[in-house]
Amino acid sequence: MPILVRCWIIVLAAMLVTACGGADQESVPAAVPLLTLGHVGHDHQIALGVAALEPEKMRQQCGIHLQELKPREVYRMMEGERPIAELHVKKVGGGSKMPEAMSRGELDVGLGGIAAILFFIDKGTDMKLLCPLNVDGDMLLVQPEFPAATWEEFVAAAKVSPKPLRIGYKEPVAVAKLIFERACAAEGLRCVAAGQGKAGEVELVNLQGEANVVPSLASGAVEGAVVNEPGGSIAVYKKAARIVCQLSELPPEGMWKSHPCCGICATGTAIANHRAVLQRLVKLIRAATEVINADKERAAELAHQWTKQPLEVERSSVPNIVYTVDAGDAYRLGMERWFEMMRERDTFQGVLKELSNADAFARVHDLSFLRSVE
Amino acid sequence: MAQPAAIAVQGLGKVFRRGDGLSVAALAGLDLVVEERAFVTLLGPTGCGKTTLLRILLGLEAPSGGSVRVAGRVPVEGQVPAGAVFQQHSLLPWRRALANVMFPLEMRGVRRRAARRQALDLLRLVGLEEAAGAFPHELSGGMQQRVAIARALAHNASILLLDEPFGALDDRTRRLLQAVLLDIWESRQLTVLFVTHNIEEALTLGDRILVLGQGRILEDHAVPLARPRDPLSDAFAAELLALRRVFAAAAEGAARGRDRSIEA
Amino acid sequence: MDTGRHPAATLLRRVGLGAIPFVLLLAVWHLASRSAGTLLPAIGEVGEVLAHPFREPPNLDSLPLATSALVSLLRVAFGFGAALVTAVPLGILVGCRHTARELFLPIVEMSRSISPVAWMPLTIILLGFSSLGSVLYGTRAWEYGLLDQVQLAIVAVIWWASFFPVFLNTMHGVAGVRRLFIEVALANGARRAALLRHVIVPAALPAIMVGIRLGVGRALMVIVAAEFFPGTRAGLGYFITTSHQVAQYEYALASVVVIGLVGLVVNLGLYAVESRVSHWQAKER
Ligand SMILES: Nc1ncnc2c1ncn2[C@@H]1O[C@H](COP(=O)(O)OP(=O)(O)OP(=O)(O)O)[C@@H](O)[C@H]1O
Ligand SMILES: [Mg+2]
Description:
The complex is a heterotrimer of chains A (about 375), B (about 260) and C (about 280). Chain B is an alpha/beta fold and about 260 residues long. Chain B is built from 7 helices and 9 strands; from the N terminus they run βββαββαααβαβαββα. In chain B, the strands form 2 sheets. Chain B has a 6-stranded mixed sheet with strand order 5-6-7-3-8-9, with helices on both faces. In chain B, strands 2-1-4 form a 3-stranded antiparallel sheet, covered by helices on one side. Helix content of chain C is about 75%, strand content about 0%. In chain C, helix 3 (about 65-95) packs parallel to helix 7 (about 150-175) and helix 3 (about 65-95) runs antiparallel to helix 9. Chain C is globular and about 75 Å long.
C-alpha cells in the first residue's frame, strides 16, 4: 500500500505543478461586473469572434472593444479606455446545451439557436432574446453522385425512387429538419421516420449530432442530409456531399426567407442588473456584424481563426449565412412562423403554449437594448 | 501448591456444530492445571481435541462449557499473554521471514531497530539467519515452522503454546530445536504446553505428559527422569517403554471402533 | 527456450514480435487511407498532429495535444483518486461487516451496471461547469492554468466508472482474507484495531490492486465519453468529439494513439506495482 499511495501522490503532485504553471498572470480583482457568456463556437456566431479578434477595428467602429486576458476565454470589455465588464467566454456546444446552462444560472448571456432558446423560455427559464445574430444558412445535401442538382430534381427523384430516400438530420428540433418536413409536405412528399413502417417517399433519419453527417453520407447510410452551416461546407470540403439548395428557397414560396437562426439572449437577472453592459454588448455585436458584412472574405479568415475550421470551409460557409441583428418585420414574421411550427408540433407545453404570436414575441424578447443602439 | 497455576481449566467442554448438521464434542469435561514454569507435553491421537484446547486457551474459540483461566484471566483473543506455534503453516505470506518474526515485537511497540536486532537473534537461534530476507513461499515447510517458532519466542510472553511444532522436521534438526526450546524454557523461566504425536519427544521434553482422549485427560504422567535427559540411556528407554504401555492402554480404552493412527 | 542465446538477441526478439501487429496495422491503415474517396486520414496527417504536441492545433478549437493529454490525466487522476479514497474504505467496511454488506449490496449491484456516461446529464445539472479551479479560486480560476479544465462533472463520471471495480475487488479481497492470518496475528499480540492495518489490508492488497488496475482501465476508457461535456476546451476525449464534429479526423486518430500510449505506460506501471505487492499470492503453497 505505501508504495502505491506514494506513487499516486507523486504523479498527482507533478501534474498539479504543471497544471498550475500558468498562475502568474496579472491578477486584478474584478472591480467591474463579471458576466459569463456561452456560445456554440460555429460560424453563425462569428460576430463574437470578430469582436474578440479585431479590437482595434471595433474600437473605431463603435467605441467598444474586447481586451484579451486569456485567448478565447477571458476578455475585458472596454468603452474607450474604461473597463466596463469582464466577460468569461465559454464554449458550451450546440443544441440545448447553452439555454440549459442559462437555466442553471451558469451563464448570464448566451449565443445560441432560436429553437432551443424558445423551448427553454417555454419551460420557464427566465431569459430573453436581445437580438438575432443570423438568419438562413440551412441547406439540403446529397451524396456527390446523387442525380439532383436542384430542389425540383430532388423532388422528382424522390417520387420515382423505388425506395424512400433516406435524409439525415442532426437533432429533432433542428431548424433544417422542420423546414424540410414542411417543404416536403408542400410538394406532396410523405416524410416518415425511420423504422416506423409507414409508406413514404422520404425517410428521415436522426443522425444524433452534426458530427455524424459526414460519415453517414460517406458510408451511404443516408442519401442526403439537411444541415446548417458550416456542416454543409464541411461535407462539401470533405467531398462527402453536394449542396442541392438553400432551405430558405424551399416552398411554400417565401415562407422560409430569412428564417431566424441564432440569437443572443440574457437571463432576467443579467437584464435587471447589467443593463449598461448588455447595451454595450449588443452595440459591439451589431458593429461586428457590420464588419462581417462589409468584407465577407476577411470575415471568412476571421471565422477560420475563431472556429479553427479550415479556411476553405469558411470561405464557402460564411457567404451562405446572412448575418444580421435586425429585428424588423422580416424577423418578426420569421419568429411567428417559429411559434406556429412549435405549437403545431406540441413543442410548447409551458408559458408560450397559450400565447398569441404577438404576445409570445413580446414575451421572449427584450429589444430595448437593440433599439437604444440603432 | 505454592505457585499459582499458569493455566487452569475445569470441566471444559466444546461442541462443534458442523455444516452437515451433526454435532461433534471435541472436548468434554476436561480438567487441566499447568503450574507456572512447568513443561507439559500433551499426547493424543489425531482428532482428540488437542488443537481445540490450545485454540480455546488462546481465546480463538469460545468454550461451550466449563471455566478457563490463562495467567489468571479468561482468555480474550489478542490479549492472551502466550506465544503460540500453530500446527499448520502460519507465516504471513506477504512478510519476509524477518518481518514475520518482528510481528509480535511491532505489536508490542518495540522500536524498529531493536525489533530487527531481536528478530535476527531469534532467527539465529532456530538456525535460519540466512533466511531472514526470504518470503515464506521461498522456504521449505520445516524452515517455515522454525520461523514460526522464532516468532512465538518473540512474543516474549511467559507462556508458550506449541501445536506439534517439530512435526515436519528431520531427526537432527528436531533434536537441535528441542535443545533450543529447553534452553529458552529454562533461561526465560517459561511455562510450556507442548502438543505432540511423538511419545519419545513427549518424554524428552515434558515434566508431565498428559494423554488426551475422548475430549478429556486420560492420563497424567509425571516424568521421573532428571534433566538433561539422554535418550540413549537405559532409564530413558525403560521410561519410554512404560509410557508406551500406558499410552496403548489409554488408547485402547478410548477407542470406540474409530480409526486412529498414532505415531509411536 | 531462449537459453544459451545472447540476452540482447532475446530482447530484440521480444520487441520484434510485439512490433509485428503494429506494422501490420500501419500497413492496412496505409492501404485503406489511399483508396479513393475515403475519409480515413493518412498516416502522415496523423503523424503531423502527433509531431506538434505543444502547438494549438490549426484546424481544431482546442488546447495543444500535450496539454489535452495532461488535462485528461488530471481528470482521470482526480476521478480515480476520489474513487480510491471512497471505494477502498467502503469496500473494507462492507467486506468486514455482514450488516454493511446487506446494507450496500443491493444498491451496488443495481448501480454498477449503469454506464458512467448515463450520469452525464445529471452530473451537468448538479455540478454544472464548476471545476477544481472554480471551487478553489472562484471566478479567478482562469488565472490558474489548467485547474479550471478539471470539471467536477467529468471527475464525477470518472469516479463512477472506477469506483465499482475498486470497491468490489476490495470487498471480495477483504471478505476472503483467510481466518488463519487473523488468528495468527491475534495469537501474536495484535489487538483487533491493529488487524486492519497489519493483516486485512496487506492480505487483501492483491485483490485491491486488481481492482485498481481495472478501475484505472475503466477511467481511461470512459474519459473519452466523459469529455463530451459543455464548457471543455481540452482533453483527449474532447479532441475526438470535436474533431468528429468538424470532420477533422486526423486529430481524433492522433488522440486515439496518445490514449493508447498512455494506457500502455499506465498499465505497465500498474503491473509492475502489482507484481511487487501481489507476488506472494500466486506463489503461496
Ligand atoms: N471448526 C470445527 N468445526 C467442526 N468440527 C471441528 C472444528 N474444529 C475441530 N473440530 C472437530 O473437533 C475434533 C478435534 O479436533 P482437533 O483439531 O482439536 O484435533 P487434534 O487433536 O488437534 O487432531 P490432530 O492431531 O489431527 O491435529 C475433531 O473431531 C474435529 O473434527
Ligand atoms: Mg491438531
